[in-house]
């Protein structure tokens, strides 16, 4: 991803001191010219791929599984029937309750007419009204139990898990495995934990590069869509959520994804290999060359990426950075760049 900024000034190996044209001994070094380059500050994380919309579907009525209309991997629409248990008993109960409710409504209507003519008492009318309410409640309950003999899709999605066998007895709450897991495979998410320091740099809308082990050297692209406002229970980490579109349906739920979140971009940055950076009581520094002498330049590391460091401080573009022999010199050492 990065283009290293260093342009070689010389590469010949020489270990001993050399004598310059003026007859003075100088330490041989190699130097490279600092150049500005583009740089991205990346926060890395890892998480499992999941669906933005996923649901476990179970039967709410018990009975023998009679029909299976769909199979694993099928894309289905909201309201599609996936499977049915034997509904004969539920259907007959529902039809009886429906007839009872219709009769109770008719009786109540007749009673209202009689009440208006003072042909029946208020007490008798109230009893018929209560019977109508009771029969309506029974009718609704039996209708819902009958409907729930069918397992239907609550939203558009793909069947990602199925544990159904024709003829088995379905008993709600007693199944070890979910009968159906339905998921929207178009819109996926990855939950990632980041540190307290990193969460301050992350915002919604930032670009995310995603790599999955199953697809070597093939990047996927997403965005940060949620940034946690509270640390995860028992930890100092924060949760963020990355969203991506699964255009070719290559990604599967549960795959491990490595995510690279771009939190900052620089058009003109100074980036150097970490091995050239030294440290003393005053902080980190590097050696550069000016007028054939070594100079100590103090720097600060702003970001690390592998063996490279984004730095700022006393160095600027155009400085000659000593890249070999820097451990043999001190401030003001006479040096000779070997070409």
Automatic annotation (TrEMBL):
Q: Gene3D superfamilies annotated for this entry?
A: 2.40.30.170, 2.40.420.20, 2.40.50.100
Q: Which InterPro entries match?
A: Beta-barrel_RND_2, BSH_CzcB-like, RND_pump_MFP
Q: Report the residue ranges that make up the CzcB-like barrel-sandwich hybrid domain in this protein.
A: 60-175
Q: Tell me, what is one Gene Ontology molecular-function annotation carried by this entry? A: efflux transmembrane transporter activity
Q: Could you tell me which residue ranges the CusB-like beta-barrel domain spans?
A: 190-261
Q: Which GO terms describe its cellular component?
A: efflux pump complex
Checking PANTHER family in the record gives: BLL4320 PROTEIN, MULTIDRUG RESISTANCE PROTEIN MDTA
Q: What is this protein called?
A: Uncharacterized protein
